[in-house]
# Entry
Amino acid sequence: TAAKFWDGVAEKYARTPIKDMDSYEHTLERTASYLKKTDDVLELGCGTGMTALRLSPYADTITASDVSPCMLAVGQKSATEQQIENVAFVQADASRPPSWSYDVVLAFNVLHLVEDLNAALASVHEVMKPGGLFISKTFCPPQRGINLRFQAVRLALPVMQLLGKAPFVRFLSEAELDATVERAGFEIVECDSFPARDARRFLVARKI
# Structure
């Protein structure tokens, strides 16, 4: 299961530094610009909670959800150590988010790992307040040139999954991802792809 896989890599994940800190900081900056101090925020696939904790000063509450109890335990420990009290860690699958009413839902580096993306986005739409924002950043396969590293990973992925060494991964183009979000009842208000190398698709979409 997804929970078992991510539990197994939680400690290593927590120790692994972010590869592109400039890109990460840019993501935080763009996201924070949309948040208000009165917002109730939900993060899907929060992992060890680093992003939720970094964004906590910009919101009223943040519900950081993940399928992995071990990931959540790391996040809760960090919140306690940093004395951050407005972030709550909750175990939940991205397709079945906590039932509440949120101003903003965040999904960073998780949508390509969701098996039923349509169901997940429908659930996100359901738990959001009218006019709420869905902010995501998602891996999409490179569309230009020959990326040997990506091709090698894609060829090896089925074997790694069979051995339990890799999770489910969906490969959507940027255009397919945008269209999927729009079909779920959202209007895209900002889109970008960064960094220049190994880009991720950053979307801000409003519930309609």
Notes: The chain has a mean pLDDT of 93. Residues 148-162 form the longest helix (15 residues). The chain has seven helices and seven strands. The CA atoms of residues 23 and 195 lie 6 Å apart.
